[in-house]
């Protein structure tokens, strides 16, 4: 479980996050949603420790990110998997080398153990027979699978995903969403996904935090979302004609 407790983040005199408190549950896909510029990425980066918060606390299963010494921070980093926008693969490395990279960096596993672990992760994302290909030789959806395999290589407790569907077609987006959702449940990870994709919200939103102009305006599940009485969230959801029509059906 990850908790944000009264988190504020400013850049010089610009306050981007305003008093955000939220609990992100273990074994669940927790989504941060909101319009472009609302502060989702800044919140995600603050949670993961890439931004230092101006005020407030981030707790990883009760461990405060702020209070950790550098050794403890390094240990915590190894419990975190990250999936970035794009896929952030290393272009000059093969698929297998990309997945092995965190194992090379952070473990003392033998070559054989690393190969086995990389193969296990590639199988898990249903990507067989691609080990020796370069990222440029595979599709965007396959690249995303490699990125997921790399993110879970160290068997993380926490998984952070920044816009995992950016650049993917709707069908591939669903496959990637479902994969993230499945592995979250299977490995009991605390997963936080930053998205503005309503299809993701309806597909995998176990828990949803809605951010508006840097403040938390709403939280709930995908099943609650059609019953909200919150103008800002309604404007966000029903910006799409399709979702306005779905709402009519739910009435
Ligand atoms: N390093 C920074 N310095 C100053 N301002 C920043 C910095 N990073 C983000 N901001 C500002 O914080 C606000 C929120 O940005 P953020 O990237 O979190 O939005 P977002 O909700 O993730 O948007 P998008 O969906 O478009 O990615 C924006 O006004 C942005 O300009």
UniProtKB/TrEMBL annotation:
GO terms for molecular function: ATP binding. Keywords: ATP-binding, Nucleotide-binding, Transport. Residues 2-238 form the ABC transporter domain. The keyword Transferase does not apply. The keyword Mitochondrion does not apply. InterPro entries: AAA+_ATPase (IPR003593), ABC_transporter-like_ATP-bd (IPR003439), ABC_transporter-like_CS (IPR017871), P-loop_NTPase (IPR027417). This is ATP-binding cassette domain-containing protein. It comes from Carboxylicivirga linearis.
């Amino acid at each position: 479980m990850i908790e944000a407790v009264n988190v504020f983040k400013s850049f010089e005199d610009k306050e981007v996050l305003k008093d955000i408190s939220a609990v992100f549950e273990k074994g669940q896909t927790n989504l941060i949603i909101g319009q472009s510029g609302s502060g989702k990425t800044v919140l995600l980066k603050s949670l993961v420790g890439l931004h230092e918060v101006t005020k407030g606390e981030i707790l990883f299963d009760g461990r405060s990110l702020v209070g950790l010494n550098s050794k403890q921070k390094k240990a915590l980093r190894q419990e975190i998997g990250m999936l970035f926008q794009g896929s952030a693969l290393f272009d000059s490395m093969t698929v297998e080398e990309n997945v092995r990279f965190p194992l090379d960096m952070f473990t003392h596993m033998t070559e054989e153990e690393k190969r086995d672990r990389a193969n296990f992760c590639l199988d898990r994302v249903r990507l067989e027979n691609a080990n020796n290909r370069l990222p440029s030789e595979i599709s965007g959806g396959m690249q995303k699978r490699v990125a997921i395999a790399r993110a879970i290589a160290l068997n993380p407790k926490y998984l952070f995903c920044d816009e995992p569907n950016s650049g993917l077609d709707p069908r591939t987006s669903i496959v990637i969403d479902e994969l993230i959702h499945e592995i979250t449940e299977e490995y009991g990870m605390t997963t936080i996904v930053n998205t503005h994709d309503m299809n993701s919200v309806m597909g995998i939103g176990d828990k949803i935090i809605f951010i508006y102009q840097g403040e938390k305006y709403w939280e709930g599940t995908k099943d609650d979302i059609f019953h909200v009485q919150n103008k800002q969230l309604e404007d966000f959801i029903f910006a799409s004609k399709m979702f306005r029509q779905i709402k009519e059906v739910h009435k």
